[in-house]
Amino acid sequence: MILIFSDNNDRTTIEVIRWLAALNKDFILVNDDEFFDIKVDQKRFFLQSQKNSFFIDDIQSVWYRRGGLFFKRYQYSNNSIKIYMNETQHWLEDYILKTLESKRHINKQSNSHVNKLLVLEYAQNVGLNVPEYFLAENTDEIIPGKTITKAITGNASLDNISENKDGMLYTSIIDKKEKESFFISFFQEKIEKDFEIRTFYLNGECYSMAIISQNDDQTKTDFRKYNNEKPNRNIRYSLPKDIEVKIQKLMQILDLNCGSLDFIKSSDCYYFLEVNPVGQFANVAYHCNYPLFKKIADYL
Amino acid sequence: MKENFGEKHKLPLSFKHMEYCDHTSKRGDKKIIYILKSEKYQSNFYVREKPVKPLTRLL
């Protein structure tokens, strides 16, 4: 039995499930709105939510696409009992999570989010080129027009930040110095790019796509400012072997066997930007005709 | 920076460059949603099937 953790509207999950159904592989899909009771039946751990129930030892492989395994916890009113029972329940949950992570898996719940700052340090350590970056609370060290700022969070959108409006923190060029200081912000050297590369990594293999975003003013600083009228051209791309070897080293350090990596190509140099373990890769599969959904279904 | 969004503490500089779009609630603002449950896919989320790229190139 294959266990899949995802959110309720992820098209990549459905695409992989199509393949699992075609390959006659049994699976359980756990959505991020499910909460599980831990039970024991005939000496075997058993998990039960409002939608799913299964024995832990029936699970052969796990795909942490998104979301995760969340538990119901019993509350106790006596404070000493509450502390004791919280710890008891914690260790049971810990056992379940670690047991599932020890099975054949694609990514893990415990490291499905990475620290962008540490990732950049590790990337430099394995020999990848990283545009010069620093953190600052003012613009004293910034060269206007040649520096960008971007979020260090995984999610760059702020839902409903003002009346019926969502906010997006895209990568933006700093074109003038600020008089006042601000909260610690991430700055990076602006690289004049030939094009961007998005690489999907799975178990040592890289599947890359070049995104020709530099010819469009709307997408040239951040291709996620999609131009729906005239979309960027996306084509298959092969990274040099030495870059792929460095990607593999980086993913091993991060203990990830799956993820999406972003690069910029500038003349002969490939600059690493970031890695996203839960990023969307459906576009890479569609545009480049890579059989990524089947690869995942085969592995599970 | 929109008067710091009314916050007492400072915000990162990227907030000054924030771009806005109409709110698209992930949960949807409609009071009723129509779903079709699939036992096979264990989901009620579907995407419209598109022809794969080689097919469109053949046209």
The oligomeric state is heterodimer
The helix/strand class of chain A is alpha+beta
Number of strands of chain A: 18
Fraction of helical residues of chain A: 10-25%
For the sheet with most strands of chain A, the description reads:
5 strands, antiparallel
The low-pLDDT segments of chain A are none
Q: In which range does the helix fraction of chain B lie?
A: 10-25%
CATH top level assignment of the largest domain in chain A:
Alpha Beta
**How far apart lie the N and C ends of chain B?**
50 Å
The proportion of strand residues of chain A reads: 25-35%
Fold and architecture overview:
The complex is a heterodimer of chains A (300) and B (59). Helix content of chain A is 24%, strand content 31%. Chain A is of the alpha+beta class. In chain A, the strands form five sheets. Chain A has a five-stranded antiparallel β-sheet with strand order 16-15-14-17-18. A four-stranded parallel β-sheet of chain A has the order 2-1-6-7, covered by helices on one side. Chain A is globular, with a radius of gyration of 22 Å. With 59 residues, chain B is mostly loops. Chain B is elongated. The mean pLDDT of chain B is 68.
Keywords:
A: 300 residues, alpha+beta, Rossmann fold, D-amino Acid Aminotransferase, Chain A, domain 1, five-stranded antiparallel β-sheet, four-stranded parallel β-sheet, B: 59 residues, elongated
